[in-house]
Amino acid sequence: MATANPVNLKAFITPDRVILGLETEDRSAALERLIEPLIAGDIVVDKAQFLEDLERREAEYTTMTDNGIAIPHARSQAVRRLGISVGLVSGKGIQFDPESDTRCHLLFCIAVPAFAPTSHMPLLQAVAKFGRDTKRVEKILVSKTQAVAARYLASYKS
Amino acid sequence: MKEQVQQLLELQELEFISKESAIVHSDGDADEDLETRICKKRRKIPAELLARYDRLTQFGPSIVAVKGGMCVGCNLSIPQGDLNRIINGSVEPVCPHCNRFLNIDVS
Fold first, then answer.
1. How many CB pairs under 8 A join A and B?
2. Beta carbons within 8 Å of B25's beta carbon, 6+ residues apart
3. Are A74 and A124 within 8 A, CB to CB?
4. A13/A54 Cα distance (integer angstroms)
5. CB contact under 8 A, B72 and A116
6. What are phi and psi of A108, to 5 degrees?
7. pLDDT tens digits along B49-105
8. B17-63 pLDDT per residue, tens
């Protein structure tokens, strides 16, 4: 399984893939917003299909961690190539996992093409490692612009 | 055979989710429910088929798609005659080059 190779986030995260001040408390609404930059980047071709695949994956096992980071991802026929979008939530956060009281403040949405089902593992590993670093998470959450957030993530060496 | 490949596909998806969860959640015990489901799924699959699946899994996904007439696992072209025989069910859906199970969406 391709989990050993470090990944360069710079290759995946650009300012237009970052959403600042995501104002919603609903998981589906947040996921819909996160899909938009992936559609604009021609990574996802069918929003409804990918949203359905993300929800199905969440139903299998939550992708939210104890420290309020969610990494929704799904293999989907609606995905043309591997891609990621980032959402920084403003306000009191999203009730991402109905079984958890923890509110989610940072989301990474990974689109995985169905024909390359394990291609996202190094990316997932890098993002999960970033999410475990509380100081880095606090710092990215106060980003004032998309470019600053993207640059900060891109500079992260997993 | 198509049903068995579907079962293997479901097993593969659960195993992927288990690996993903191990990456996302650093606490190992959260995966107990998933492991139980994987065990149940494995028990339903014939031993010989499961052995083939496990052997292939050592080298990546065991069940792969066919894209543009090519096996996504080995990137080699599958002869149209073989594809036709796989689709009409006269031979088992495996790649003639790498032996991976093929998940062919006929529609």
1. 45
2. A65, A66, B31
3. no
4. 20
5. yes
6. -120, 120
7. 999 999 999 989 999 999 899 999 999 999 999 999 999 989 999 999 999 999 987
8. 999 999 998 765 557 788 999 999 999 999 999 999 999 999 899 99
